[in-house]
Inverse folding.
């Protein structure tokens, strides 16, 4: 049987530790394991124009010049490669009119060509740039044998062309990406582009937050417009939407009822790096010292001197610092517990800075200076596994989510979970979490306090047992067969 060829968008893999980057890495490697698929990754930068990798015109180059061309592509992901004066002049002109040229190209009906990146000599770059923040090192050698597709114009310019074209009519016209030879194109967000005839667009839809909660997103006006217009275009083109939860699918259908027959649900899979393990509790304080956030507000290490070296009890939250994650409610609930029933309970927060994080960091600071709250960044999965293992509970207080990895990761590591009572948490966590009203400090403090109580060991053990069962539902062994069933049962156009 001929294998279906699928192009997987890897652009989100450039964006750190958050949920969509994790899903991008996990799904790419998972699909590579399926016998019926031949998988390639698409590399496109969010804001930079890239140098081409290898194009047909490079076929006559010597091997050394081909390697140098690939090397210049790598440099272009972070800075402009060294060029002669003529190349600098051409690049300067091109940069100033890049989006306009892309718009003209799109209006004329031409497609955006791609080049091919041969990763065999650049395994370190491929692994550390795209994959190592989520995957086991055992995956490295096979991924390093892949070829990747490179698109030169940035994702930002793809969006810009579509948004600007919508002012001339009722519908945006996005650039046409040359996907000839691919049966599917899998995007992790609404994609600001069109595909060559014969390629089925498949959008992994995570959440409708930019539309339903635009006050919580970054660059609100632009983000909202980009999400809505690209989503609208994808729906009209006949894209299929693989929603990461039934709650996400329900929100999508509320906004666009006509898309119902184009949608289905396959939950996220969770990295096999998260599992129960044996580690000394004293390791927690060492990890805290090593991973303390490197931001001006936390330059002082005075609070670390007050750590109990061998043992202390703590709550854990793992999430980017941004408004809908609801850090402020958790801090208030935790403060209430410290003032009443749990004076020695500490709080560890793990996650990189997002947007509108100022109020949260200001709430952290006085407690951090006392050694009661520890804000950590860039914690690799083996260390995060230790933090999950020894926490009294992992708290997931979000106001909105598409899936919420941290609760499932915690369950797989044997940690009780207390979460906000929102539809997606009820769906994903089932009976393995205690739930609280995400707008009520009193309710959050009560539910967290009951789980963290010294006499609640039996209840925590019962939660751990339920968590093991629920956490296993999202293991690759249980999620990948659903993808296999989809591709086996779906006929491309």
């Amino acid at each position: 049987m001929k294998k279906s060829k699928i192009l997987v968008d890897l652009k989100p893999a450039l964006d750190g530790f958050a949920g969509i980057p994790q899903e991008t890495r996990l799904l790419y490697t998972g699909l590579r394991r399926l016998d019926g698929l031949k998988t390639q990754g698409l590399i496109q930068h969010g804001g930079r124009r890239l140098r081409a990798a290898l194009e047909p015109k490079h076929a006559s180059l010597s091997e050394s010049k081909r390697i140098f061309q690939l090397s210049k592509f790598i440099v272009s992901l972070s800075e402009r490669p060294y060029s002669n004066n003529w190349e600098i002049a051409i690049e300067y002109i091109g940069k100033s009119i890049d989006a306009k040229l892309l718009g003209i190209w799109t209006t004329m009906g031409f497609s955006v060509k791609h080049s091919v990146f041969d990763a065999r000599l650049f395994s370190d770059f491929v692994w550390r740039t795209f994959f190592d923040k989520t995957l086991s090192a055992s995956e490295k050698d096979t991924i390093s044998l892949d070829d990747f597709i490179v698109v030169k114009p940035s994702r930002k310019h793809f969006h810009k062309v579509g948004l600007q074209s919508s002012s001339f009519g009722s519908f945006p016209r996005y650039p046409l990406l040359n996907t000839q030879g691919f049966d599917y194109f899998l995007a992790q967000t609404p994609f600001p582009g069109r595909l060559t005839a014969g390629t089925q667009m498949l959008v992994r839809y995570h959440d409708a937050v930019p539309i339903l909660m635009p006050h919580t997103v970054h660059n609100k006006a632009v983000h909202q417009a980009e999400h809505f217009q690209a989503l609208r275009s994808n729906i009209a083109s006949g894209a299929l939407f693989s929603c990461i939860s039934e709650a996400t699918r329900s929100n999508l259908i509320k906004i666009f009822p006509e898309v119902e027959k184009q949608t289905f649900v396959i939950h996220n899979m969770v990295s096999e790096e998260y599992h129960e393990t044996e580690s000394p509790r004293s390791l927690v304080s060492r990890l805290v010292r090593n991973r303390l956030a490197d931001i001006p507000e936390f330059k002082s290490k005075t609070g670390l001197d007050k750590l109990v070296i061998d043992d202390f009890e703590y709550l854990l939250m793992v999430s980017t610092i941004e408004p809908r994650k609801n850090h402020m409610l958790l801090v208030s609930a935790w403060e209430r517990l410290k003032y009443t029933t749990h004076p020695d309970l500490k709080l560890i927060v793990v996650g990189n800075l997002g947007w509108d994080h100022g109020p949260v960091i200001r709430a952290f600071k006085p407690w951090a200076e006392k050694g009661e709250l520890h804000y950590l960044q860039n914690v690799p999965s083996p260390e995060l596994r230790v933090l999950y293992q020894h926490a009294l509970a992992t708290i997931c207080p979000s106001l909105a989510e598409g899936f919420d990895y941290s609760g499932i990761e915690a369950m797989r590591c044997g940690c009780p979970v207390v979460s906000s009572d929102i539809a997606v948490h009820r769906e994903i966590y089932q009976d393995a979490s205690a739930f609280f009203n995400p707008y009520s400090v009193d309710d959050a403090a009560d539910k967290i306090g009951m789980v963290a109580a010294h006499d609640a060991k039996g209840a925590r053990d019962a939660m751990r047992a339920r968590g093991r069962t629920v956490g296993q539902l999202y293991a690759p062994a249980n999620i990948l067969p659903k993808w296999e069933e989809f591709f086996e049962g779906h006929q491309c156009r």
About this structure: The first strand starts at residue 4 and ends at 9. The chain has a mean pLDDT of 88. Residues 14 and 191 are 16 Å apart (CA to CA). The chain has 18 helices and 17 strands.
